[in-house]
Amino acid sequence: MIQNNPALIAAIRDRFAHVDTCPYQGERVFFENAGGALTLKSVAETSAFYAAIPDNPGRINPAGQGTQNVINKAKADLAMFMNAASGQFFAGESGTELLFRMIRTACVNAPKGAKVIGSSIEHPATRSAARRWAGIVGQEYVNVPHDDATGMVTADDYAALMTPDVAVATILHASPVTGMGMDVAAISKAIRAVSPDCVIIVDGIQHAAHGQLDLKAYNVDGYAISPYKVFSRHGYGIAWISDRFSAAPHDMLIDAPATGWEFGTRDTGSYATVSDVVSYFDWLGSEVSDETDPRARIEAAGRAIHAYETHLTNTMINGTGNLPGLRDMDHITILAGEDNPAREGLVSVVVKGKESPDVVEILNAQGIRTHTRKADHYSGNVLEPLGLPDCIRISLCHYNTEQEVAQLLGALKALGEQLS
User: Fold this and answer.
1) Is 66 inside any structural domain?
2) Residues 144 and 153 sit within 8 Å (Cβ to Cβ)
3) Among 167, 196, 221, 224, whose Cα sits 20 to 30 Å from the Cα of 100?
4) For residue range 328-377, what is the model confidence (pLDDT) as tens digits?
């Protein structure tokens, strides 16, 4: 395990760029991982290498064939990382763009009079796409309300509103506002119990960095991630689609292969950095287990990441040493409950008597990077029902430390003393 293993924590941190310093700010604690995780050093090196190669992948020359092999390997690595036995992976502009594309394709191919279902907890990447294309095609959009108290939506919530004419469904795997993870497999099962052929598309962007991806278990048709949120770099997204969804009519060039979903020349570097990320999970799994199978090591890494991040968020909420936790600070309110087992490395709070942007600025001045979520088009669906104009999002990953959590708690404790 990662907890109580200083040597392993040091080895983990050594693999990431700017783990404790910012080239613009200097020393800082990075609790803004939901906005974009730290980047593996190997990813930066790989990106630089492939950025200098002029050849198109697939051309009949050594570089063209070599880069195509890199792309093929990355897709195989993704299949292992996400436990996909079939279907295909492809890259796009971003995770959001890919979700829009998949949802658009699903809606325009749905039977006339069909319905589209999604939940109020979802990020606008899916929610906006589903509502837009349902409206264009003339489909009813069914909204599944989430529970404000827990920041979640459940399989029972979906089941209560499911009907056989639902042809498209969207699911959020983890919320970037509340930090809660949804039971995708259970929700998918509830959907298919009523509408077996429903096309189910999942937003896995917030969940991916916390490990434990298992497409075999989900029984869905589409799943998207944003690699910059899972230790890679900006500039691309990755989608997986099932075999049956691959064959559905979709945007493509005339006379192109019927199941091809990629457009234009591929960026070898983006795919190559995916392999760097998978290699990192494989390495971490070898450090926290005796497994020899790569997939088993990746699963072990996911379990270790989840356990350690739970330890860190519990420390943040309950306190450490002589520092009180967030739950014991009278000026702090925690969104979605203090004891919520669905939490994935994220705690959102509000400070009584202080606007969230001001708190973020105060923390940033002390070298603690957090982020304001406002009741806007990104987060209003979660914050407005709570009567909140904004909140402070504290998001961490497994390379963060208890010492960094203690630094945050000390700063928030001092802020409370100033406010009292």
Assistant:
1) yes
2) yes
3) 196
4) 999 999 998 888 999 999 999 999 989 999 999 999 999 999 999 886 78
